[in-house]
Inverse folding.
DNA sequence: ACAAAAGTGTTATTTGTACACCCATGC
DNA sequence: GCATGGGTGTACAAATAACACTTTTGT
């Protein structure tokens, strides 16, 4: 029956991708003891809320980013992670189109995951590192489609996969597989003003995405 | 900075298997408000401990069961799950050899997962149901090897897989695959006094198991 | 005409699936 | 000698991997 003071938070690792780089959304926190410092977006799980509800609230703070559904990425419970109190983090990843890079919110910014500010609050540097590993370990590659812009070419998608999973893929085999997977649909639009044959744009198959819920 | 009273617990779903049945370890709780009722083993995450440490403590309560490493299986945070206070559960599965069925601890018993006591505390019935689904969804079947006794025949292992994943497998193909996986080793022991050709006993390849850490 | 990326098909290899009979043992 | 489960090999299908050239477009 002992109930020592403990706080549970959801801490979100929002990820997007552009030009062979992953970006993570950071926030300048404005409450003690982290006032003015960079960290991941986080929200306390209130006593009347579930974790799922809290995640919905967290995502709602960023309506313009069209975040994916949350994907559980780990628990962080080191008693020393917060300097003042006991805070256990349930971390979740959210995926977002790079369009989000241009949508700015007050006190927020996207940072390249390999060039983070020198100090982040608590263990957020660690959480981001682990989240990247987690992402690379995903055997279901579907979430990566959420890192693509609204419309994208097959080469762009292939480059994204190659970057994140640190592999090189055969163009023909890659195309056969992704097209036959049903996750993407061709459009009738093609690149314009490129000094080579114009590539067809594809889009996420939203029907399939809805069914599969990542 | 609000710190409403919240408790974090690890709640363990210890599983074993015998004769086409899964068993889960239940405990008669002896503290209010659950005095005398069946539920999963659980341990509060103390303010000085991490979740991992708490899991080690939980496993240490059952030294005779040779539990596997814990496998994260879900968070349960419904504010109403505990009648008196806010308790969020981090649930983990532990796998155990059926030898454990004979090792009795005070106030504990193994129950067939499909014939649980009519009422379990909190949402434990739900957690067990979800854990079973989680187990079935594991694409890495290796944890199931921890449900086998010290030595087992290939037919026993096949039957276990068939039961849990609710499939039927071809004997020859199953054998080829499991043997070539390197997860098990044949012994020179064979069944005795059976009214048919004696089967070879196999054991878990502990070297491989250690490397793979489930 | 040339540079740059798009787009495409075939073959070989590997992996998975289907399938049926003989073997050893206790009764 | 028969009932019981143990143990094995081969042929086919499917999935994956390797591989090179032609097309389109801007400069």
């Amino acid at each position: 029956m002992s109930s020592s003071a403990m706080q549970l938070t959801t801490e979100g690792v929002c990820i997007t991708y552009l030009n062979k780089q992953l970006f993570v959304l950071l926030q300048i926190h404005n409450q003690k003891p982290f006032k003015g410092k960079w960290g991941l977006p986080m929200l306390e799980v209130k006593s009347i809320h579930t974790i799922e509800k809290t995640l919905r609230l967290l995502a709602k703070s960023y309506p313009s980013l069209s975040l994916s559904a949350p994907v559980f990425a780990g628990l962080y419970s080191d008693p020393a992670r917060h300097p003042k109190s006991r805070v256990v983090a349930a971390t979740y990843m959210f995926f977002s189109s790079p369009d989000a890079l241009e949508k700015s919110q007050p006190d927020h910014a996207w940072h390249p995951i390999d060039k983070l500010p020198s100090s982040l609050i608590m263990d957020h540097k660690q959480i981001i590192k682990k989240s990247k590993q987690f992402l690379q370990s995903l055997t279901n590659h579907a979430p990566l489609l959420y890192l693509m812009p609204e419309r994208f070419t097959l080469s762009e998608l292939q480059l994204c996969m190659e970057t994140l999973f640190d592999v090189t893929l055969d163009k023909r085999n890659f195309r056969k597989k992704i097209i036959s997977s049903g996750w993407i649909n061709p459009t009738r639009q093609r690149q314009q003003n490129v000094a080579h044959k114009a590539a067809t744009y594809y889009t996420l198959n939203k029907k399939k995405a809805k069914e599969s819920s990542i």
